[in-house]
Amino acid sequence: SRTRVQRERELAAMPKYIVGGVEVEFPHPAYDCQLAYMRKVVDALEGKANALLESPTGTGKTLCLLCATLGWLEAKKGQDKAKEAEAEGEVERANLFLMGLKESRTIVYASRTHSQLAKVVKELRSTSYRPKTCVLGSRQQMCIHPTVSKIQGNAQNQACRALVAKQACKAHNSVQEWLLANKQAATQLLDIEDLVRLGRSGGGCPFYISRELQADAELVILPYNYLVDPKIRKSMTNLDWSKCVLIFDEAHNLERVCTDAASFDLTSVRLSQCMAEVQGAIEHKLQQQSGPGAAMGEGDTEVESFRVTKTVLSNLERAIAAHDFPPNGDGVTFPGHYIFELLAKADITVENFEVFLDQLLAVTQALEERDEEAGKSRSTYNVPSLADAVKIVQRSLGKLSEQDPPMFEGYRVHISDGKKENSRFSRAPGGSSTFKRMPTLSYWCFLPGIAMRELANLGVGTIIVTSGTLAPLASFSHELQLPFRESIENPHVIDPSQVWLGIVKCGPSNVRLNSSYRTRDLAEYKSDLGNAIANFARVVPDGLLVFFPSFVVMNKCVEHWQLPSGGSSGSGTIWDHITRHKQPIIEPRESKLFAQAAEDFRAKLEDPAFRGAIFFGVCRGKASEGLDFSDRAGRAVIVTGIPFAMKTDPQVRIKKEVLDDECRKRRGEGRGLSTLSGDQWYRQQASRAVNQALGRVIRHRHDYGAIILLDERFGSPSAQNDLSKWLRPHARTFENFGGAAGALTKFFRGRRGQVQV
Q1: Which of 114, 253, 532, 611 could form a disulfide bond with 507, CB atoms 3.0-4.6 angstroms apart?
Q2: pLDDT score, position 695
Q3: Are 635 and 614 in contact (CB under 8 A)?
């Protein structure tokens, strides 16, 4: 066919490069920075070393990763075939050797979101490589059963397994038949949407097909949590970790993902719900005993054990609430080992963890049985989440190596009284307000390296961590507790004329722009910030992105700009001036509303009645973390302040304390190892969030755009040094607003005069 002939021509025309001794095919002529990046990947694979690689968005990072790793994989397969040919005809010992050779290596490619995984498959299709591939996802994304697909959370998993056990799911029953009829499926590069589409058109279950394809896959594409969550990782029995290469793409948030997977928060509400569920299991078993045909005494032991479990949970609730909480609502914090002391007060001890977990499982099974007998759709129970919390505590008893202390030393126990989180007050008889205490027990991990070192302990030869914003690399390596022999901070592929970066210290009325806690609520600051944005909205063509340090700051500014007395010059409000040329979209707090906001932005961008659209979002929000605003969608990005986390947030405060304690300990021991102080970590978290937001513009080789930093603090040498390496040479500081507006106008006039490829 014409398509096949065209594909063969494209493959024949693809350039080939020798990178680190390995032939790599690339879809187009590679830039120097792409070759340098691929060389680091191959060097890490060949040397069985870890790599920490930063390359700006728009430099083809994903494509480089795929081509370099798959080129290396093809080279290894070629070497195995050569050894196999040499060994032909030898005695039985050689046959055993050959069996070892045929154990294929696996590239495991992880990214943060399912949309990013779909992009990986899209990039893979543009290459010459066709490895046996599978994309793993959750039942939430892949289930096509008319009833089960509508269930949420763990209840969906339970309902699916129950149907499969009874062979009552038509889609699951068709899996083997579909695989036999589609033997080339593994090399067809099917993403989640493809599998779901095929399943709905009469194919087998997408979820179980992907699991079957994993058995022989050379490339497994999956979300982060499949690797960092030990419970999910343990279920991936088809993978021989010692023959795996792990890639973490878009890894700027990897530290947080790792610590979240090893932590839990147990609220008083959830604990109460668990007790109610145990009571429900007791009532179900008692009803069974009183039913027709029930033997005398049947189930007595189980009912009694459930009552004991309920008593244990009640004791835990009292033990948590018995703490003396400070009046400011900050809660109380203890070392990690305190969790065992606290649980022991409820008779949950190291010696009976397994017994307690068995009891929680029995309760869950009783609830499932009750709902099934009643013909109810399965509910999401709270008891399994309590079991998960106990497993986290149990796991923290272990050591990463003989030389390391127990993992719980990297944890902290925090108990809040609910004062800051709970706004519900009850009235006492005398009319005074009384606070209803609703404490939360938190067991927080402050060692992101636990997950990474567990993977290394499984025998994984190479772990590649990469993103557009990782710098400073030394602190990232320190946090992950892995040695990274290979590293790179790549330049961009663009020409300097394609980017403009201005640090603007004051607004049109000469008010200093500074979004620190001291000045961000001042009316004159908010007014001049709004007027500055209004001026830039007139200069910037098409799409303009504006990122604030937080939702609170953004909402306060927008409210101020919409006031008639908001400090605007001339008629109308500041908001009127901002939106005169561009239609606004404000990022919603609720994640489920974000897709609609992004769609609205695209629609308003195309409205011929306006000169584009303006998107107001927050650093660390969905828009700043991963949305693609290429070409017209993002001609400029404004960052209005440095997004420092709340110092009063208990997790932030404790993290700083943990790092400072570690620094003091290492200094006291006289060890010359690299350290990261609490203040350094605090500043770096903010700068990475800024760099991630700035990466929304310049999405490919021929893109162009402007970066406008509306906070005088960006003018300091330390703040400029915290910018991504490729951006630093472009930074210009403007002491007055007029100079910045004039330079930006000149930049866009110059771009308008050039023909875009």
Answers
A1: 532
A2: 86
A3: no
Q: How far is it, in rounded angstroms, from Cα 643 to Cα 517?
A: 11
**Contact of 114 with 200, CB cutoff 8 Å:** no
- Give the DSSP H/E element, type plus range, for residue 617: strand 612-618
pLDDT, tens digit, 9 for 90 and up, residues 177-210: 999 988 888 888 998 999 999 999 888 999 999 9
Question: How many of the other CB atoms lie within 10 Å of CB of 748?
Answer: 18
DSSP-assigned states of every residue in 271-311: HHHHHHHHHHHHHHHHHHHHSTTPPTTTTHHHHHHHHHHHH
What is the C-alpha separation between 282 and 295, in angstroms, rounded?
A: 17
CA distance 322 to 316: 10
Give, in degrees to the nearest 5, the angle at Cα 492 between 488 and 494.
165
pLDDT of residue 298: 52
pLDDT band at 299 (very low <50, low <70, confident <90, very high): low
Taking the C-alpha atoms of residue 253 and residue 434, their distance in angstroms, rounded to an integer, is 40
CA distance 356 to 342: 15
In terms of DSSP H, where are the helices of 206-248?
Answer: 206-214, 225-228, 230-235
**Contact status, residue 260 vs residue 448, Cβ threshold 8 Å:** no
Q: Which residue, 720, 569, 556, 703, is CA-closest to 637?
A: 703
pLDDT band at 699 (very low <50, low <70, confident <90, very high): confident
Place of tokens 């605090």: 682
Q: DSSP string covering 349-379, please?
A: -GGGHHHHHHHHHHHHHHHHHHHHHTTPPPP
Q: How is residue 278 written in tokens? A: 């145990």
Average pLDDT over every residue of 688-707: 88
The 10s digit of each residue's pLDDT in 7-52 is: 666 667 789 999 999 999 999 999 999 999 999 999 999 999 999 9
pTM attached to this predicted model = 0.88
| Structure token pair of residue 68 | 């370099």
Q: Which amino acid is at 201?
A: S
Residues in the chain: 757
Dihedral sign for Cα atoms in the order 327, 329, 331, 332:
negative
Answer for the pair 209, 195: CB distance below 8 angstroms, yes or no: yes
**Is-contact 18 31, C-beta < 8 A?**
no
Q: Are 230 and 96 in contact (CB under 8 A)?
A: no
Q: Read off the pLDDT of each residue in 726-739 and give the average, rounded to a whole number.
A: 94
Partners of 412 in the beta sheet? Answer: 335, 444
Q: How far is CA 127 from CA 63, 79, 110, 121, in A?
A: 8, 22, 19, 10
Coil, strand or helix at 343 = helix
pLDDT tier at 472, thresholds 50, 70, 90: confident
Q: Which residue has the higher pLDDT, 552 or 697?
A: 552
| Strand-strand pairing, 440-445 and 433-435 | unpaired
Identify whether the C-beta of residue 268 lies closer than 8 Å to the C-beta of residue 418: yes
Rounded mean pLDDT of the chain? 88
How many whole angstroms separate alpha carbon 706 and alpha carbon 693? Answer: 13
Sign of the dihedral through C-alpha 569, 572, 576, 580: negative
Report the pLDDT value the prediction gives residue 184, as an integer from 0 to 100: 86
**Strand 462-467, strand 244-248: pairing:** parallel
Distance set, CA 284 to CA 147, 271, 306, 372 (Å) = 25, 20, 11, 12
Of the two residues 565 and 311, the one the predictor is more confident about is 311
Amino acid at 623: A
What one-character-per-residue DSSP string does 718-753 give? HHHHTS-TTTGGGEEEESSHHHHHHHHHHHHHHHHT
Query: How far does Cα 560 stand from its chain's mean position?
Result: 33
Asked if 744 and 539 count as a contact pair (C-beta separation under 8 A), the reply is yes
Three-state DSSP at 590 gives coil
Query: How far, in Å, CA of 609 to CA of 487, rounded?
Result: 48
- 3-state class (DSSP) for residue 700: coil
Closest C-alpha among 618, 638, 637, 641 to residue 512: 641
Nearest to 367 by CA among 235, 298, 304, 273: 273
